[in-house]
Amino acid sequence: MKPRVAGGAFARFLLVLLLAGLAVAGWQWQRYQGFADAPLAGIDAGDSLVVARGDSLDKVLRTLQAQGVDTGDRVQWQVLARQTGAAGKLQVGEYALAPDTSPRALLLAMRDGKVVRRNFTIVEGWNIRDVRAALAKVEGLEHDSAGLDDAALMKALGHPGQHPEGRFLPETYAWVKGDGDLDLLKRAHKAMQEALDEAWTSRADDLPLKNADEALVLASIVEKETGIAEERPAIAGVFVRRLKIGMRLQTDPTVIYGMGAAYAGNIRRSDLTTDTPYNTYTRAGLTPTPIAMPGKAALRAATRPADGDALYFVAVGDGSGRHVFSASLEAHNTAVRDYVQRYRAQRQAAPK
Fold it and tell me: Residues 6 or more apart from 234 whose CB is under 8 A from it?
C-alpha cells in the first residue's frame, strides 16, 4: 500500500509551484501592461522620431535611446509589436513625440503611418525666384534642386525647355520629412496644369488668345495688377479689350518683371520707355512668358473676363487697393488726377 502522505505532499508542492507560477505570470503581465501604456521617460515637448526606409524595431529603439529616451526592455517591445500588429510594418516618416507618448501609442502610430505633416504655401503673385528662395529655407525638406538653374530644374521636373515662370499653382502643399523639393514642385506643376486646362476648357467665346499658355500669361498679369479678388474679371476685361483692338497693355508689373534685379522698389518714367521683351509700354501684345504664379481666381478671370467698355484703370488711392475703371482717356485722366491729389494729401498728412 502506497503512503498517502508522500502523495499529498507532492500534490501540495505542485499546487505551490502552480500558484507561484501564476503569481509570477500575473506580476509579469502587470509589468508588461504598465510598460505598454506608461509614458516613455526622456521625451520633451516638440521631440520627434524619424523612421528611415529599412529600419527595424531594434534600430528604432537605438535611435530613441540616442535621443535620450529610456526604452526599457526590448523583449517587451517585441511582444507589444506582435500584439499591436506593428511587427515588421513600421512605416517610413517622422513621428511626433510628446511627454505622454507610450510604447503602445508610438507603435500604433508607426504601424498606421501617422507621420508629421508640414505645409508649404506658394503665394499668389510669387515669381519663380520667390518660390525657390522660400523652398531653400524650409528645414527638413530635401533640397534636391540646389545648384540647378531654372532650365535644369524644369528638365529635372520632366519639362525640358519650358520656362518655369507661372507654372506652379499657388496652394498649400503638405509634405513629410524626407520629401524633396522636386517632389513638391512636381505636384505644384501638375496642379497648375490641371487648373489651367480646366479654365481654358470653360473659356469665354472670342478671346484674343491663341492657346492656354497665352491665358496663363494674361492670368499672371491680372494677378499682379490687383489683390482684390472681385476686381480680377474687370482687370482682365480691360486687357482683353485692348488685345482685341491692338492697344498696348501698358501695365507696370510687366515692366518691373523685365527689370529683374535692377528694380529697387520704384518705377521711373525712364523705366517705362526702356525697351525689354516684357515692357508692355513699348511692345504690343502679351509678354513672352508669365510674370508670376497666378491663382485659380486669376485663371478664371483671364479666361472669363467681365463684359464692359472700360479700356483704362487706375488705383483709387485711398488705401483700399481698388481701382477706378474708365472707358475714355478723358475720364481716365480725371481719375489719375484724383489719384495724384489723394496721394499728395496722404503724404502731407503722414507723420514726419
Answer: 305, 306, 308, 310, 313, 323, 325
Identify the residue whose cell numbers are 519639362: 159
SS (H, E, C) 160-208: CCCCCCCCCCCCEEEECCCCEHHHHHHHHHHHHHHHHHHHHHCCCCCCC
- DSSP of 119-173, one letter per residue? EEEPPTT--HHHHHHHHHT-TTSB-TTTT--HHHHHHHTT-TT---TT-S---EE
Query: What is this structure's pTM?
Result: 0.80
Q: Report d(CA 39, CA 43) in Å as an integer.
A: 9
Domain 36-116 in CATH 3.30.1490.480: yes
Domain ranges of the chain: 36-116, 118-195, 210-349
Cα–Cα distance for residue pair 240/306, rounded to 1 Å = 9
Task: Assess contact for 116 and 96: CB atoms under 8 A.
Answer: yes
Render pLDDT for 167-201 as a digit per residue (tens, 0 to 9): 999 999 999 888 999 999 999 999 999 999 999 99
Q: For 101-130, how does the pLDDT look when each residue is reduced to its tens digit (9 = 90+)?
A: 999 999 999 999 999 999 999 999 999 999
DSSP string computed for 12-63 = HHHHHHHHHHHHHHHHHHHHHHHHHHSPPBT--TT-EEEEPTT--HHHHHHH
Interhelix angle 4-37/103-112, rounded to 10 degrees, is 60
